[in-house]
Write a structure and sequence with these properties.
- The chain has 387 residues and is α/β, with parallel strands linked by helices.
- It is 46% helix and 13% strand.
- The protein has a seven-stranded parallel sheet, with helices on both faces. The protein has a six-stranded parallel sheet with strand order 10-9-8-11-12-13, sandwiched between helices.
- Strand 5, helix 5 and strand 6 form a beta-alpha-beta unit.
- The chain is globular and about 65 Å long.
- It starts with 11 loop residues before the first strand and ends with a helix.
Length: 387
């Protein structure tokens, strides 16, 4: 390994577009800086997630540097957003001449930047590759499958993801099992997570809500399949209200969910002092809330992983998951939109019979270091070979 990075080997363009990407990219950037020699990077934000206040808060919480480039694409349909990212990303590649483009996760920005780079013969590196829900109705599943087919180097979080890629005809030499960078972020930030009482007070609630011996639960809901139908949303809010009579619930309310509650006239289902509605929370606030909870009910992919790492029982309100290891080894139980299953599994957890699980292989806080070491060797090897 040379002492300094070759001056004629361009930077790694690291792409973020939406909230889940930030938690994954923060440890990667730190590992690239700490590597010897340091790996030069440019952080590019597509602007797919355009809430400036939330962006600034997450960047501060995660100790992410401000982006070197912001494409500022904003919202739109999947087609409009993907196309706009592609249009604005291409001139950046022409100007910056990167050694590769590194994308994370499965948002529209991930696929859009992958397509542009691949068509310009610039290597693509995909972190969190190989995860599959096998539900093509999810836009994220389309993004995952296509990105993995195009990417030159694929880093996986669990061994089942490696198996998925093999079944899809992706050569083993393109794949590396390195662990989960989301857990790198969780472990490094857990000591500085905000206390649940402070988060509740800052949100205008009474910390006494969670001070009793019964503890509290945490809820997040945002997927269209759960919140865009009045009937489905009403049934889920109804069972959550039932649960709240046994266990106070802290509900981090996504803007889409809040809007639909109002649109469908369902406010009465959450109008109880046992359910505290908070606006979307920063990373350190959510981490503190989850770490102290007795149960988490969610339709988020990332929270399935984080609760497994924290050892907190999780009920996932989805029919499938692209993170099966959280069910097989972790604390996650799939309940879908089955109201009776939600009731029964919650009762099991509150009776002390929830899944304790274990932390999966290589979820040890060093995934980003492994990526930095491997990627540096790969890029320097290509450079030495004149590619």
């Amino acid at each position: 390994m040379p002492e300094t990075w070759p001056s004629d080997l361009g930077p790694v363009i690291c792409v973020v577009g939406a909230r889940p990407n930030f938690m994954k990219m923060a440890p990667i950037l730190r590992a690239f800086t700490a590597h010897a020699p340091a790996i030069p990077t440019l952080l590019l934000h597509t602007g797919q997630h355009y809430d400036r206040d939330m962006n600034d808060r997450l960047f501060e919480d995660l100790r992410l540097p401000q982006p070197d480039i912001n494409l500022e694409v904003g919202s739109g349909s999947h087609a409009v957003q993907t196309a706009e990212v592609m249009k604005r990303f291409e001139p950046v590649l022409d100007e910056r001449k990167p050694s590769c483009v590194l994308v994370v996760g499965d948002v529209n920005s991930t696929l859009a930047c992958t397509l542009v780079a691949a068509k310009k013969n610039i290597p693509v590196v995909h972190v969190e590759a190989g995860l599959r829900s096998y539900d093509r109705a999810m836009p994220e599943e389309i993004n995952r499958v296509l990105t993995d087919q195009i990417a030159d180097l694929l880093y996986t979080t669990e061994r089942s993801a490696t198996d998925n890629l093999g079944r899809e005809g992706i050569a083993a030499e393109r794949v590396r099992f390195v662990g989960n960078v989301m857990i790198d972020s969780l472990l490094s930030n857990r000591p500085v997570a905000r206390s649940p009482a402070a988060t509740i007070a800052a949100g205008g609630g009474d910390p006494a809500l969670i001070a009793g011996a019964e503890g509290y639960g945490v809820v997040t809901l945002h997927r269209p399949s759960n919140v865009d139908s009045a009937e489905v949303l009403a049934s889920l809010l109804g069972v959550l209200r039932e649960i709240a009579e046994r266990l106070p619930l802290v509900f981090a309310l996504h803007p889409r969910t809040r809007s639909n509650i109002e649109r469908f006239g369902l406010q009465h289902l959450i109008d109880t002092p046992r359910m505290l509605m908070l606006p979307p929370q920063g990373y350190l606030e959510m981490l503190g809330l989850m770490a102290g909870a007795r149960i988490v009910l969610t339709d988020s992919g990332g929270l399935q992983e984080e609760t497994t790492a924290l050892g907190v029982p999780c009920l996932t309100l989805r029919e499938n998951t692209e993170r099966p290891i959280t069910v097989e080894q972790g604390t996650n139980t799939m309940v879908g939109r089955d109201i009776e299953a939600i009731r029964q599994q919650t009762a099991e957890i509150l009776a002390g019979r929830g899944k304790s699980g274990r932390v999966p292989e290589l979820w040890d806080g060093r995934a980003a270091e492994r990526i930095a070491t491997d990627l540096a060797g790969w890029l320097l090897g290509r450079h030495a070979a004149g590619r």
